[in-house]
Design goal:
This protein has four helices and two strands; from the N terminus they run ββαααα. By secondary structure, it is mainly α. It is globular, with a radius of gyration of 15 Å.
Length: 95
């Protein structure tokens, strides 16, 4: 009998689905704070017109909404909603 890889479940969602949802939430947050722009998962924060003030607002919302404190440096190096979502997911994972 061939064994299949098991998908870990969290609250009824698999990890890939949960991560995709988180990326969409972060993209929507960026769009909201960037004057209603459409933001995709791999769009660059600075290319979209992001600046330090908007970055601080994003960090504040991430902290409030997800309970994860990211540094400005981490946000600016991550640059995309997909990468920021990865950092949030890592921050939520118990060590």
């Amino acid at each position: 009998m061939e064994s299949r890889p098991r998908v870990q479940q969290r609250g009824g969602q698999d990890e890939a689905s949960e991560r995709k949802s988180l990326v969409q939430e972060i993209s929507a947050l960026w769009g909201e704070l960037l004057n209603g722009r459409e933001v995709g998962a791999d769009d660059d924060f600075f290319a979209l017109g992001g600046n330090s003030l908007i970055g601080i607002r994003i960090l504040d919302r991430v902290s409030k909404d997800y309970g994860v404190d990211l540094s400005a440096r981490a946000l600016y190096l991550a640059r995309t909603p997909a990468r920021v979502a990865e950092l949030i997911a890592q921050g939520r994972t118990p060590s």
